[in-house]
């Protein structure tokens, strides 16, 4: 059917009779979506000659509808006004419906419509298939695609006056949230109606994208110079490269349920998120990126109002009232400068860690992946006397071994092929006066461990290819998820360096062993919603019952997800969490081994099975989603536990 000119009304009327009298279908004349709708109406024992009442909900239901769909209404304001302007001369009324088919905003050329149409197009009228039979909005909602419905294509003869076209509106997480529809009493020269509603729906979807508290919104295109966002794939990334949202085109193109929690940049692209982001920030236009499937595309930062280029600066933007943008605290990064870290024991240890740093001793932070080692390192810096100087973080596992030496120690001009003219300072030099954070120090190559030890002991650094030394003064924080004592025993980590960096060890326990999960959940939610939202008691119970193999990272992502999908103004309930979190809570002692440990083990197995299920058996993706290593997941599968 697509965007063809309307078929003549007589032929449509004849095709309708052929269906109603003999069940014959003509898919070349009538959209199969309409046949499917007719068949549902017949199955519901409706008769085409029934009278239809376009009933409006009462005032309090209407204000509830408006409140529940506030986000859609706000995002729709601009695009709908543009659409109304574009079609003012063509006599169309324009309306938005919610996901159930209730009209939530109406406008356009209402006064030009027949009284029957005006009666239907009022806010709060139920325009779902169950109420008014086949219509463009009902078909668009059912089929998740734009649909046009001419007069006699409506199931009820009483609606043959209406000629309408509607397109579904999908939110950035893939949820169907409503439709935009144009309706009028004449079918004359209806070219372009479908295309117009489709463009308006896309414009609303882009508006919704703008409101995501993302670290970066990236568009992908085939050519380096594409400027038309509607042709692009769009992805929103969180601070750690987690995928917060994608548009429908991306979901279809990537063939993955990208709005499911847990997918990271690295699951879809070659290379690391941090590196790509740095390149994007430095680039004037698009940069080439490679998908894991081998396909090459061009990525650009999506410029958003009031922001440079697709970067949600340190502060995120949310919307208050009628489209007014307000600044919030960073969406996901805890406020590390306050004394409350969401956990009493960690707060106390941080205080001791600070004293160690102030006495010139290093701090070593240990913990499983995602427990917050990076956050703790930053908190130490921000609360220390050196907070006004640089915080220089280097991830020893992320930098190729061939580059780590020059990264850390810097180099002189001519030190190696490609060395910059004038040389470059290393990260250690850059940390002068401030804090050097060596993340994943357990992965540092042995030969560099010796050099690092010399720097720590002498407080002097010499650049690669140079002989001069320079005094450096920094406070040192290191972190690793490795069992570093084991690494020392196995000779993978130098014992002398270990003793040099472990003056004070701050161990972050896995989330499943922390007693204050609910308080942490509330503090993360307060940061996201500026204190405006809360959890239901069941939601808090569910959070406390899940084993969180991905630790705070997975926990925080689940809360961001629930905050995004729970309707505005509603408390966050257990049902708003991602599927993987909704594991059944087993009564104590029912799992193998009995007792709390047995229950935890059983929940862990359940979480692993679910993750494997949701990732269609892809162990790499499932391990990533769970925040555990691939080797661990393979081991659990092969041992028959999962
Ligand atoms: N106390 C906290 N409150 C809110 N969010 C937190 C807290 N601790 C950690 N997070 C969040 O959890 C995520 C993981 O934290 P972080 O990167 O510090 O963990 P990590 O232990 O360094 O992980 P990895 O070993 O994988 O690098 C981050 O997005 C961080 O913002």
Automatic annotation (TrEMBL):
Top-level taxonomic group: Bacteria
GO biological process, one term: regulation of DNA-templated transcription
GO molecular function terms noted in the UniProt entry: ATP binding; sequence-specific DNA binding
Domain Sigma-54 factor interaction: 356-564
InterPro entries, sorted: AAA+_ATPase, AAA_lid_NorR, GAF, GAF-like_dom_sf, Homeodomain-like_sf, HTH_Fis, P-loop_NTPase, Sigma_54_int
Keyword Transcription regulation: yes
CDD domains (UniProt xref): AAA (cd00009)
UniProt keyword annotations, A-Z: ATP-binding, DNA-binding, Nucleotide-binding, Transcription, Transcription regulation
Pfam families cross-referenced by the UniProt entry: AAA_lid_14, GAF, HTH_8, Sigma54_activat
Protein's recorded name: Sigma-54-dependent Fis family transcriptional regulator
Source species: Zoogloea dura
